[in-house]
Amino acid sequence: MSVRATYFTNLNPARWSLLRRIMVLLVLGLGLTVGISFWIISSSLNTELRREYFAHERQSLENTAHRIEQRFKQRAQFLQQLAPLITNGQTLLPADELERVLRVAYESNLFSDFILMDTEARGIFDYPFLPERRGKDFSHRPFINELMQNWQSVISPPLMGSVSGLPSVFMAEPVFNQAGQPIAILVGRNGLESEMLFQRIRNELQSYSGQLLIIDPTYDLYITATDEEKVLQPLSKEDRIYLSSDELQDTWQGFYQDKDRKNWLYVAHKLGFMDWIVIKKAPEVIVLASIQQALTYYMLMIASLLIPLAFIMVVLIYRWLAPLRSSIVQLNKAVEEESDISKFNIEREDEIGQLLLAFNAFQSIRDRQQQLKDELLSVVSHELRTPLTSIRGALNILQLDQVQQDPEHRKKLFNLASRNLNRLTFLVNDLLDVVSLSKGMLRLNLSDCSAQEAILEVLEDFRALLEEKSLQVEFTATEEMKVHVDQLRLQQVLSNLISNAIKFSNAGSRIQIALTQQGEFVRISVLDEGEGIPMAFQPHVFERFTQADLSDRRKQSGTGLGMAIAFELVEAMGGHLSFDSVPGQGACFYVDLPSVKVMPDDTNKALK
Amino acid sequence: MNRLSLICVEDDEDIGMILHYALVQLAGFQVELFTSAEAALLHLERYPPDLFLLDVMLPGMSGVEFLTELRKQPRFAHTPAIFLTAKTHFLSKEAAQALLLSGVITKPFNPLTLGDEILSLMQSTSADAGDVSE
């Protein structure tokens, strides 16, 4: 017996104990319940929470975008309004006045630098002062070129300032004289590095690990980002996802998984004014963090409820099964020792209690059957020994010379032996009948026969006995009656009834036999005027050996089987055997047998 | 030597006949045979026998009941008694001792040796009884 073998045996649920199965079922069931409820709650709450997040973020993003747009529009307007202020109608203001105006404008905090160029795009003035700008040719800048073609306001894409070296968006505005001819170009630099608005927005987002991106899809650049290193850098592969969106709306949302398999939720908005995209994104884990926490609490709460509950259930089931276990032990012990088993102690009326109760009842029946069997054996052996005693005694005595020489004595002993041999034969036949009847193996040779004839034949057999006791027999029959029976078996039944009647009749009394039609049955009644059947024995008349006490049976000098056999024979032939008896006033036995309808024609033919 | 006197109760007439032959003709005992315990009780007043030979299964009062009844009467309290029966295990050892039973002869018996069997059972118990009285 290896450990491995036991291990594999234990894997087969068919070999598990009931308790083990219930425990496994309980653990699986509770686990599944918790798991499924967790899954359902978490998925529905996650969906809800995402929806809420998107709804809130769209609103907030649109606000942010609006603020950015407003800010840039405001600057463009500011620059437009500033342009006429730096001329006197014909030419630019003198340098000291120019500086005063631009300083005031600078203090509005809307622009980082102002650069003034001539119509050839050469730097002529700036504020704050950077010497490299003066005299520098800016005509190579595409946005300046664009302006010089149409002489209208231009906003540059994000660029690195050629002098400042800082990421910037430039706004350029032509400056006209009164005649409407361009005399200069006014450029305002929006330093993205120092953009207060972006900083404010980034700070707002930092509170929940969100990120802000503003990208320029045309130039494939980050305008700004929470991660400052990204500013004006080409878009990372991850962030190109916003470019490929086919959304027709200004605002859209979605989620993606980054290369670290981290889920991100994002909301994007296309700015109308700048052609930029503003994006707010946040890791899903953080968005759903509140749910995760709530679910963790839920799990802990459920577990703290279910674990003791499961424990209590297992203990209860263990205790409920206790009677079953102890009964199995008791039974196994009885089987091993081949001993008897005492009755099970039953405390509860549940299924187990009922099973044990049924087992007890079954055991009682078995005990009673065993007792009956023992009794039967004892009675049978007694009944066999009695005639055997006479036979053996007679034969032993016949061996003696003195007896052999006395013919009269010899004859008496021979008669005695032969009489007892007959008794023995009848007894053995009865026993065989009982066995056949109880096993349902009795063969009946059913045929239509005359009830009268059967009765008369039996009476003929008893003629000598009747005369001996000087009993008078009255037989009345109204008409010819046929019954569907086994004739020999019917005669056996009648013999039994008549011999009983004779046995119990006092000398000189009457025995009345009558044949009547009772519906579909033919009734043969046998009435005697003997002592009757004691009330106490009446319920047991047709039971084998049990009907009367042994001494009483001896008085009948029968086997105690005759009535039981008669009863079962009549039943087997489709009839019924019953009796009426008032103790002290005789007994009347009724044999009801299935009748055969006698057609008048047939009767006539039979008579003819 | 006086002939041994027996009161014998046996309801089966055929066996009674065999008993009569075995005990009277062959063993030479003086036997009074009854077919029921009730009939025997009526005749007890007349003389106490040397031995009761009783069938156990009898109509009405059984052999055991009859002997129990006898043991209540001082006159028969110590009269030897033997059961003659076809039944086995009808009496426990303790009950047999309480009834001062000399022995049990089972049916079928051999009528040719029945007398000797009865005598030997009586002798063995009377020896025991002697021990007890001393």
TrEMBL record, chain A:
Entry GO MF terms: phosphorelay sensor kinase activity
Lineage top rank: taxon: Bacteria
Reactions listed under catalytic activity: ATP + protein L-histidine = ADP + protein N-phospho-L-histidine
Pfam families, sorted: HATPase_c (PF02518), HisKA (PF00512)
InterPro entries: HATPase_C_sf, HATPase_dom, His_kinase_dom, HisK_dim/P_dom, HisK_dim/P_sf, Sig_transdc_His_kin-like_C
Keywords: Kinase, Membrane, Phosphoprotein, Transferase, Transmembrane, Transmembrane helix, Two-component regulatory system
CDD domains found in the cross-reference section: HATPase_EvgS-ArcB-TorS-like (cd16922), HisKA (cd00082), PDC1_DGC_like (cd12914)
Assigned EC number: 2.7.13.3
Chain ranges of the Histidine kinase domain: 379-597
Broad class of enzyme this protein falls into: transferase
Cross-referenced SMART domains: HATPase_c, HisKA
Gene3D superfamilies reported for this sequence: 1.10.287.130, 6.10.340.10, Histidine kinase-like ATPase, C-terminal domain (3.30.565.10), PAS domain (3.30.450.20)
GO terms for cellular component: plasma membrane
Ranges annotated as spanning the membrane: 21-41, 295-318
Keyword Cytoplasm: no
UniProt-recorded name of the protein: histidine kinase
Organism for this UniProt entry: Nitrincola tapanii
TrEMBL record, chain B:
Family annotation (InterPro entries): Bact_response_regulator, CheY-like_superfamily, Sig_transdc_resp-reg_receiver
Lineage, broadest ranks: Bacteria, Pseudomonadati, Pseudomonadota, Gammaproteobacteria, Oceanospirillales
Protein name: Response regulator
Coiled coil location: none
Keywords recorded for this protein, A-Z: Phosphoprotein
GO biological process, one term: phosphorelay signal transduction system
Domain Response regulatory: 5-122
Modified residues annotated as 4-aspartylphosphate in this record: 55
Domain of life of the native organism: Bacteria
